[in-house]
Queue: 2 jobs
Job 1
Amino acid sequence: MDGGIAVLGQVAFWGLYAGCIYILLATGLNLIFGVMKVVNFAHGEFLMLGTYVTFFFFVISGFNPYILLFLSIPILISVGVVVERLCFRPILGTGKLNEIFISLGLIYIFQNAVAMIWTDEWRSMKSPFADMTISAGPIQLPLDYIIIVAITALILVGLHIFLHRTTTGKAIRASSQNRKGAMLMGINVERMDMLTFGIGAGLAGAAGTLWAVSGQVFNPYMGSVPAIKGFAIIILGGLGSIPGAIVGGLAIGMVENFTAFFLGGSWKDAISFILLIIVLLVRPTGLFGEGQE
Amino acid sequence: MNPRNLLSRRNLPFAALLVLALAMPLLIGQNMYFLTILVLMLIFIIYSSAWNFLTFSGQGSLGHAAFLGLGGYASSLAAVHFGLPPLATLLLGGIFSAFIGLLIGVTCVRLREWFLAMVTFGFAVIIQTLVVSQLAPLTGGWDGYAVPKLVPSPIPGALSIEYYLVLAIAILVLVLFWFILRSRIGLALAAIRENETEARAAGINPVPFKLFAFGLSAFVSGIAGGLEIFHFGYITPEIFGIDLSFWPVIYSITGGLGTLAGPVIGTIVVTLLWDGLSIFGLTYARFIIIGVLLVLIIIFLPRGLISLPEEIARKIRGRKE
């Protein structure tokens, strides 16, 4: 029975690690939703770009891939700012379906631009810490996964400090709480939109780097499903609530890995949607949704 | 936005398009390449019209491939296992798809916008998962199975016959939608789309109408799915893919959302552009071009290509004044 517990512990740890990627995606989506009330279905493309930026610079420079976080985050922030300015600002307030449609266009653009540059083969890269494990009791934990969990925690703490201690961060939270009120207080709300979208994309970029470092395979089309799950998470956890995103991300990561373990790998993607549908059947506005807008 | 007005004003180009469609096989002869493109184009006109019909009720879907695939699997399984002729099983596929569509519709009636988008997307993923795992003994898993052709190829001019068959179904579907939208049902759907609370106040119970729209949309999508796989002669779970869910959305937006002619125009324009670009050997670039086109249309032409003549006329008038 001791072995059984060890296996379950292992699965739980995989869930924790998978949850980290989802948390970063869902937090970004949530920040963007909070400020702009926009849902970006192309968010997964930022994740995908993050993996390719990491992969590209890892191959040409040979740096430790964790250092490349300092490259992928700023690059993705700039991409996010440009996308917001060119695509989302013109359609802000023209109807909720337009955002979904424009994201579809963006998905096609990003996926195929990347496929043109790096082809659409599956790729993967090897972290310098691959094969290293730390044993915690009966469980063998890969060192990379521990670093990834730690980095995610660091990023979230950094984000929290930014949002609560700096003037810009407070301005972002103000725009999120009451857009008109923030405008009246002299906050440039449109600049906050741009900045928030950038930060959201940057978080997805960080998730991309962590995805690549962990040795998971990636191709230009890999982003859609994780992003849509990220979206399912923020519906579960409550639109606009960052603690909800963290709890939801962890929950989905765990549930997925346990389902894959018990029901077979093909159910890994479907289970989060089954969960989502059950929740929405009971509460059509999500677990912590604020009712009709 | 009464569909009747929109149609009568555009009666002439529509009639011209119909004549052109009827004469097409005579014009291009037995050129298999073009005929294949045309057949697929017609199938997608049926499919995106079905998707678009859902938007008349104020609903939407990002997982319509679920119904395309269900129709494809149900009709081909009936054809393979019971030896029924493909043309007859098309109806079976549509009915099965509508049945599942109603079940999904029941979970969706209370949801709006992105919640609806998510749930419909999720159902497509769940159904695909079922098909490749638990139902694999029946469906052949990821490999799929071979299915008979709609018109067996030894018959001379099989592709032309298939073209006219699909054309007839497409016209039938469009006429059906036209009659429904003109009827009291169409008015009720429009009322629900514009404001559900007010529709309720006017004594319209939205639930049966929304379910009707969902079921009919799924039914027609299922028939389109059957047509597609009986054209290719095989079926795989790829039919539930994200791409196939997104195409009808792209076609409808390009042409003009919430109009009957929109998906038709959109499918024709995007398909021609798509296959035109592939002649130049563009593979990934054509996706990018379609993506850019989509973004531009949403920002600058929110009512789709169908409003282009109007918009140009307005610009010219504006300049004169």
Note: The first strand of chain B starts at residue 145 and ends at 146.
Job 2
Amino acid sequence: MHNVAACDATQAMDLSAYSPVIIMRDVSVRFSAGAAEPMLAVDGVSFSVRAGEFLSLVGPSGCGKTTVLNVLTGLLAQGVEGCTEILGQPPRPGNPDVAYMLARDSLLPWRTAVGNASYGMEIRGVPAKEREGIARDLLRRVGLAGFEDAYPKALSHGMRQRCALARTFALGSPVFLMDEPFGALDAQTKLLLEEVLLDLWSSARRTVVFVTHDLAEAVALSDRVIVMSARPGRIVADVPISLPRPRWVRALQKSPQFHEVYSQLWGLLELGMSFS
Amino acid sequence: MRGKLTELLAHVAAIAVVLAAWEYAAESALLDPTFFGRPSGIARYLWNGFFVSGKLWLELGFTLTGAGISFLLGSACAIIVGLLFAAFPRIHHAAEPYLTLLNAMPRIALAPLFLLWFGLGVGSKIAVGTSLTFFIVLSATMAGIRGVSSDHLTLSRALGATPIQTFSNVTLPSAVPVIFSGLRLGLIYAMLGVIGGELIAAEHGLGQTLAYLQSTFNMDGVMGLLLVLALLGLSVTAAMNRMERSLLAWQ
């Protein structure tokens, strides 16, 4: 199935003090295209994520951050070396402990907002009566009250991504893997959705790995930011973000503290870009 | 509402002018009624056929039955085969060249063969109609299934959907609109096949009647039947559109 070895038990023990939910140790990924020499996309990436921690992976485009996330989802298994564990299990698609969110909303156009918010629960066997209640409640909390029965064609980009957020949170999985979920939105809508995400996250702490190319987004949301270099993707910095919570993303935009952290990380990102 | 009424009146007036001009031209021998018929003759033929002798109802019944059976049989087979191909790509791969060959053949040219195999009755007409409908709906089904969004598949896979869940929740609903447009074409082709078969040789049906009228130089009858066929096609398409709208409200 996949060749991701389980992490060594004794080494995993060392990290037990942090109660890591996600462990990646020495993970490398090679893509082979035909007969050509396999291309090294990710090179020796190691990190762990504590329970309830919000971790962002940032880096220049093509640095392999999405590849790292795909290894965690289990969608990518070929050409992966090293060990990866989520709650002590090797990654596999369909793990009920994991909720995955893509850049594109990928709403099903033939389902209403409620139907879409329920889709994940439906696949995972939540009874119909429960689904409906959870979906309606979450749609209200993401700001889609009144649009529960609208089809995606009637929703704006931002509203569609709100609905996708509701679908993700409806799963109740302890681990969230998010691949640039707000990457396709305009700057203002993005800030609003970041606030919705933080609001939902703070009321039910999940362990989040959030991939983005937007440094400001990473700083505003995260407890910790990992900066990756250009291909082959390596970790160049692993920086805790000490901005106090609860955070208000729009207010942060004007905070000098925020800009200080931002410029520090920007320097590291530039360093990473020059690596190739 | 008022604009619609005016538009309707304009249409009625335009049609009336054309019919009057046609009638006048036939009367004054500008347009030979032997070749073109005349509106009053067409009206008389249709009135007699439907309401005096009632014979046209029977013929219409034969044609509609043939087309209906062809459509149901052809599209049901096509959807089943299409889904089978989607589930087992290797079967699809193996069968594709033969299907392409069969599809490339002008099916109406097979009508004489079908007549020999299935007789002069409705059976041979159904064979022609079914063979036309089948390929149209099959290619639409395949196109619909191929057109499924890869994002939706990735999402379902990450959620842990079984192949059956993915098929019923993602693949099938996304293919339905494309299959539907194939079905609409399929219905037209079923009628085409049946009427084409009837024109070549038959005991009953509008096509057979048309061929008979044409060979006896009854142009009023020919024109009348062409009108009936056109209206038939129109109402069939309208019915399909209506069904599509209510079934696919999300589009």
Note: Chain A is about 35% helix and 20% strand.
